[in-house]
Structure formats: C-alpha cells, structure tokens
Write a structure and sequence with these properties.
Two copies of one chain form a homodimer.
Chain A: H1 5-21, H2 27-33, H3 40-52, E1 56-57, E2 66-67, H4 69-79, H5 87-97, H6 104-119, E3 122-126, E4 135-144, E5 147-154, E6 159-165, H7 172-186, H8 196-205, H9 210-228, E7 232-235, H10 249-260, H11 262-272, E8 279-283, E9 295-304, E10 307-317, H12 322-344
Antiparallel strand pairs in A: 1-2, 3-7, 3-10, 4-5, 5-6, 8-9, 9-10
Helix pairs in contact in A: 1-4, 2-3, 5-6, 5-12, 6-12, 7-8
Chain A binds a DNA duplex (30 and 30 nucleotides) through helix 3.
Amino acid sequence: MLLDDRKKRILQSIIDDYINTAEPVGSRTVARKHEFGLSSATIRNEMADLEEMGYIKQPHTSAGRIPSDQGYRFYVDQLMKTSQLTVEEMLSIKSALDVKINELNQLLRQISVAMSKITRYTSMAATPERKNSVIKNIQVVPVERGRALVIVITNSGIVKNSLITIPETVTPEYLIFVNNVLNEKLVGLTIEQINMPVISEIEVLISPSQEVLMPILNGVTDCINQIDSSEVYLEGTINMLNYPEFSDVDKVKDFLCLMDKKELLGRMLNELSQNNGSVTIKIGEENKIEKMKDCSLVTTTYRVGNIAIGTIGVIGPTRMDYSKVLAAINFMKSKIVDEVEKFLGKNLDHP
Amino acid sequence: MLLDDRKKRILQSIIDDYINTAEPVGSRTVARKHEFGLSSATIRNEMADLEEMGYIKQPHTSAGRIPSDQGYRFYVDQLMKTSQLTVEEMLSIKSALDVKINELNQLLRQISVAMSKITRYTSMAATPERKNSVIKNIQVVPVERGRALVIVITNSGIVKNSLITIPETVTPEYLIFVNNVLNEKLVGLTIEQINMPVISEIEVLISPSQEVLMPILNGVTDCINQIDSSEVYLEGTINMLNYPEFSDVDKVKDFLCLMDKKELLGRMLNELSQNNGSVTIKIGEENKIEKMKDCSLVTTTYRVGNIAIGTIGVIGPTRMDYSKVLAAINFMKSKIVDEVEKFLGKNLDHP
DNA sequence: TGTTAGCACTCTACCTCATTGAGTGCTAAT
DNA sequence: ATTAGCACTCAATGAGGTAGAGTGCTAACA
C-alpha cells in the first residue's frame, strides 16, 4: 500500500508533534491541532494503517503513537519542511566563529561549539586524516646548546613542532645545511609520500653524522605523526540531560560512556565522511553502534577548496529536530569560507 | 566535651564503614564488625554523644548515622590511616605517564587522566599562570612569500607559534635582522616583564618599517598570550555516575553543569594552589561553590625545581576515600620528576 | 558508675489494590 | 467514506498496610 496524500499529512502531524512534545500522539490531538476537518475516529483508522505499514508504533495499547525509525526516515526524506535559523541563531554562529584562530583544528572546534549551542544537542567533530597535506616548509632551529626545535608547516596552515636533543658539538651552520637538505627533499611531498627511499636519500646526503640526523628525523616524523593523528572534539554532552529520553540515570550513563570513547567516535565520523559535501543522516537503528539505537546522527564534512576542515556530527535523540539541525549545518557551511580565508590568507592554496 | 579514645575509634569505624558502603551505619553494625567487646546499646550511647557534638548525623530517626562535614574533617585531620597504592595501581600510573610528551601541558593532562583512573573520581587540572616563564628563544621564520611564522620558546619548554602575514617585499635577510633584535631584547625576560618601554626600544631599532614590525610584534604577543592563558583539563566525570550519591538525574545534571564551567574551575584551582607542595582538602560546605557542598575536593600543585607543572584536583562525593586519594597524589609526585627531566633534558633549568 | 538486655517507638521502603484517564479498536448508523 | 458511541486496555497515581532496621529510654546488673 502506498501512502496517499492524507496519510502523509497525518504522519507529518504526528511526527511534528512528537518532536515537539516527546509525548505519544493520540488521534484526538491530531484531529484537534491540525485542521483536517476529520473526526478522531477517521484519524484513528488512518493511524492503524500507518502502524501496519510500520511508520508509527504504540508504546502500549492505551497510548498514542510515536514514530518508528522508518517513520522518521520517511519524514526526513519526503515530508520535512526545510527551516531557517532565526536571526539570533545566525548571529550566535557568527560570534562563535569570531575568535582568533591559530590552527585549523581550532576552527573545527569552534564550529562544534557553535553547533551544539544552536541545536541544543551534542556535537562532535573529527579532524580529517591529513595524509594528503603537502609539506610546505621545514625548519630546524637551535634553541640552546644541545637542544633544537623541529618545525613542520603544511599547505593547510598546520604548524607542528618537536623539541629534540642533539650533540652539543653541532654548529648552527650545520643545522642550516641539514635544514636546506630537508626542505629540498621533503617540501612539496604529501606526508603519505614520505617513505624509506626518500629518507635514505637524505641520509646519504648528510651521511657522516648519524648522531645528528637521527634525532632530527625523529623530530620530523614526530611532527608528521602529530599532523596525521585524528582528533575528536565533543561539545554539549550535557544538553542531552534536558531531554526526557535521558531522564533515566542508566541511559545517561550509557550515553556518556559512549561519548567518552573518542577513538570510536572518530572512526565513526571518518567512515561517514563524504567528499561531496552532502549531509548524511543516520536514524536510530541505522547506526552501527548498538548503544546509539535511540539516537540519530547528522554528519557532514566541511571543506573549503582543497582544504579539509573536518567532519562534524550532531547527535540527538531520534526525536531530534532534523529540520533545524540541517539548517544549522548548511548555514555554518556558508560562514566557514570566510574564516578559512582569513586564516590562511587569500590565495594561499589557490595559486 | 573532648573525644576520648573510644569515641574516636567508634567515629572512625562509622566513617570507614560509610565510605565503603554509602549506607547509614547502625550501632549493631559497629558492634559487630569492629570488635570493641561492647554491646550495641553502649555504642548507641556513644553515638548519641558523637551526634550531639556534631560529628555524625541521622538522615531520619530510624536510620543509622552518617558522618557530617565536621566528622570528615576530624577524620581527615586525625583519624585516617595513610594507605598505600597497590602494585597494579602504581604500574597503572607509570604506564599512563609513559607516552611521548611534546608539551608540559600534555604531562599535566596525563597526570589528570591517571588520577581519575586510579581514584575513580573526577580529576581536574589547571595549568599555572606562566607569568614567570622566561623567554629563551624567539624565531621569525619565512614560510613563503608574504607569510612568516613567529615562534616563542620558554625555559619551561613551552613552544608556541603564530602564523603572520607580512609584506611580500620583506627579504629573509631582513627577517634575520628582526629576529636578532627580538632575541637580544626579549630573551631572558619573563613574560610579565615585557611591557611598553621594551617594545618601544625594539620599535626604535627597527623603526623604518612599521608595516613589517607590527605583524611580527602581534605574533609575539599572540604567542605570549597563548603561553599565559590557563587551560583546564577534566577527566573521569562519568566515574561519578557509579556512586549512589549521583543516582538522581538532577544531581548528575548539576554536577556536569558545574564541571562544564571550565573558567570557574580554573579559578578555583588556582586559588587553592599552594606553593609549598602541600595538599589541600576541602570538605563539603568548606567549598566556596554552592553546588559543591556535597562534594570534597583534594588539590595540590605539582612543581619540579622551579618549573610549575600545574594544579591538580580530585573531586568526589564527601564520602570519598580520602586516604587513597592522598596516596595517589603523593605517589604521583614522586613519578613526575623523571618525566619532567626526560622532557626538558637534564639540567636545562638547573644551570 | 559504666554496661547491657529489653522494649516501645519511629520512619522508610516496599507491596498491593483500587481508581483515574487517555487512548484505542470495533460496530453500527449516516 | 465517515463518524458517533461504547467497551476495553493499560500506565500512572495514590492510599493503605506491612516489614524491618534502627533508635532512645529504662531498669537491671557487675
């Protein structure tokens, strides 16, 4: 049986109502609140059909209906009206991003903060794998006798450093020499392209003093590892405590334990990350993680030009206000471009 | 009335028991579990005295007694036996610290992680105000046409950087000149000592090109602000959910909201920070923050030589295992020295 | 004088039972 | 096809009743 227009409207009423109130919706409520010009009995018949088709269900016999995962799916795909953020919400996002950003990851973190504030759900963000980052500059700087700093800078403006210990006999001039060799050999490579043959080449050029080269190479790999390692930010976990879905301490505990598993979340986000800028919605059981079957997750990956900012996800009860979350995610996209350009300086990566 | 020896032992029994079970302790339990050779009736009389003196109280008439804040205070000051960590716990701390540390703040974070794991309470850590950090080295490194990196390194091994935009006309040689001036004028100063007169002096030396100097000075102040800004780390908040004190969702919400106020926590920790390495215990109402009146906070400030690592605090229900927390905090202190020396390189700050 | 057995008393936690009300499904009339 | 009407179901609420833990007090005892 296909959903005729009336059934669709009734289903939409039920879901809209349930998203607002978190209470099972009865036939009388639907008849009253939304002016179908139909009696509750008629609505009741339609609701029975909708239930049979799997779009809604009853918590128990004498309760109203609540949407099933399938119901939400249909709602999200076909019924939902796109909504607009209020002016205040837009300003809130703008001001949240209006802080000096020293690092690209910090921007992602700010996005996450703003997102949890606007949606009132929990927001998570994962930095992308930076294997495609191109090394733009390497510096080996003497700090004092026996200590030096290795600095690696990438095209996406990431700066990482590593403090190393070198023999006290090394002269600044020698460090400059090493510096030049490193730049000559490594600049322009993605960090994925740095492998043994490349390293060997460098070793040959600086061959005499293994004792100097080792710590420096270690410093470089340390920096590269830092660049490549994915971080996960989490904001607004306590927002969830305001929803009746989490009025039970065990539920809260389960949720918070899940949110504590940063690696798991990071992997999940990276799996869901799309390259085409689209938004992915996973509703309830559609999530792979068992403990998330009462939650929905809306994710998208932000990128500006060829710079990946990261993947952001909003997690809330399945009863979440999908429309608003989508509005927030899309509005955010339009705001990010400015910030990235401000950070990188125009044309840095559009040569 | 002073506490005679028997009263002390009974009080200790009650508190020990309550710390373990979280259940009000009755006279019979005290008589049975701890072999005083006294009947429950006698214990009952003593308990009535202890209650009158304010060390214990009854939740309601037909319940046993639970310690009051005053009771805990007496326990902590006079009754508590010092305990030792188990071998597993010690190993756990060691392995938690056994990760490559790139920054001093990262060590503090690891300490906090280990502390929450061992105590099973919530651990917070605040980085100290670094106003006394001495600038050891400043580098201005060209990255590409029109972009440069300002790097500031302190005696405590903190490295901060700031990416800046400079006129494309600036030559590398000129940057080296600026670099030398900055080092000459700023190295050896604490960040507190950097003020307008010093800045002016630099301005005079590099006077011709304001356009170059401004972004560089901004970069330097940006780094200094990063160094000086206090960060707060929080670990193991979900541990609290395992205690019956937090079986109520509202309590959980209150607690988590409090833990979300990082600035507040940071200020609190810094206020409690002692320079002499002693441990401060704040029990229940002794805490200034209203919402913490059901919690106790144990804090100490770690420093190695003249390097401040930070202030760490363990927060738990007033019924916390004070003895264990103290043992963990003290054991940690002994382990930190190694890590700091490993990080800074021996003698870096003991010239 | 300190200790203890005994007892009446108090109060929470828990169980059971009845009531209420929201909502349903079905049937018969329109 | 729609709807009024009605019997039915079930969670939520609240009232009583009971059990058990623990107390304070008293009187007897060493």
